[in-house]
């Protein structure tokens, strides 16, 4: 689903650019005076040769030494101010971009299943480190090389011509470097991201990898992706090294040419020996930043590509959610002509679903695998944006709702079990400050309070540590406790009993009954029929459309007798739904 750039993302990127430009301009002004301060060395040389040595004046020498020391101190202070400016600029950019990029990354990860948030943080860190490095000073120093060129012009025009010629050569080498390496660096960075993502995705399934002997095959796959990355990286490095070798040869020849030029000028009587050494230093200072640009060019390319990825990610954030917190009322849940078409698909996963639920109603959703049940759950929670139609709770779109206030009123147990690093208490409380009584109440509702008490640190046990002590069913009940925390008004459970035993299912059913009793809307997706006995309504989804929907007893009657249900289950994969004891068929 393609998203459009919003005013919020544009404003954010503009403010980030302003932080950079404001800092860059300030650093540029400081660089101007810094480059003037760098003239203290050449001036000192000229004065020693032209005044101190001919007159053999110690007083003049002492005075020049004092002035030179003051100039060096000023240079050091200016250099500190410029570096401090870069640090503040890098910190400001990171502070401005971290949270929006992470939020946009989470949204894109939900759509694409890729950890874009982690990649965004890495890109921001790379950008921050680049801005805080010396590489960012090179263009400013190159710009203010005009100071040294003017000084060389005053010494002798030939010096200025020599420096200008080498500067032109360095600029040409910069263009050559960019043309030879930019695409290779881009491909190397992309291959590296793919390789890291492949390894990270595989590590999430370490148990299956070890149990089924998949590691050798995965290692071969990782080697192929790593080989691709190294091939692009080596190509970029080799080309850069060739250009750097030529650049260093030019720098060495610059020294020889400068000395030879000075020698000719001294022999002709145009300058003295002190001016010769000053000309050498000034020429080196004028040309040096351009050589530095070539040496640090890969950092510039990497930083530029990191900024492009951050910019694309934030612009991709798309339709802005509401920022004003709004409490969730006790109104109905209404799904109106809901359509969802993922990127790269021609056929919608959901096609025109329409239904409504009132507070205190429990809906059970059944259907074959791939029918769109989990996608419906994601639309109901506002995780993904519908392509058409909408989901409305108490008259407001669940997608556009401000996530803080909406999230506090929603409990969601996704099909793929995922628990964030933190303690058991933090996990149940959704990583927020919590009243211990609310945490315990949610744990009791999920039937895991006693189990938590047997862990080494009870509710303070880290989840990462507890994962080695808890079964799959216990982890699922922990996720259920998280969904039940805060007595949500909308409770959506996707395959909540897939890992549960009989005791776990009893706790689940009791939690659903309790949620219904306090007026919550409960939606559960299940393949196993045991929990369907508590449903007020049942919906059967096939191929993204509603095949059956209505009161539980009526839907059961539509698909009875049992033999017909079993036949349909074999033929279509529809879940078998068995009426609870005491129901009238």
TrEMBL record:
**Origin, by domain of life?**
Bacteria
Protein name in the entry: Type I secretion system permease/ATPase
Q: Which organism is it from?
A: Rhizobium setariae
State any GO BP term from the record. Answer: protein secretion by the type I secretion system
Q: Which InterPro entries match?
A: AAA+_ATPase, ABC1_TM_dom, ABC1_TM_sf, ABC_transporter-like_ATP-bd, ABC_transporter-like_CS, ATPase_T1SS_PrtD-like, P-loop_NTPase, Type_1_exporter
Extract the PANTHER family matched here.
ATP-BINDING CASSETTE SUB-FAMILY B MEMBER 10, MITOCHONDRIAL, ATP-DEPENDENT PERMEASE MDL1, MITOCHONDRIAL
What topology does the record note for this protein and the membrane?
Answer: Multi-pass membrane protein
What UniProt keywords apply to this chain's record, in alphabetical order?
ATP-binding, Membrane, Nucleotide-binding, Transmembrane, Transmembrane helix
Main location class: membrane
- Domain ABC transporter, residue spans: 333-568
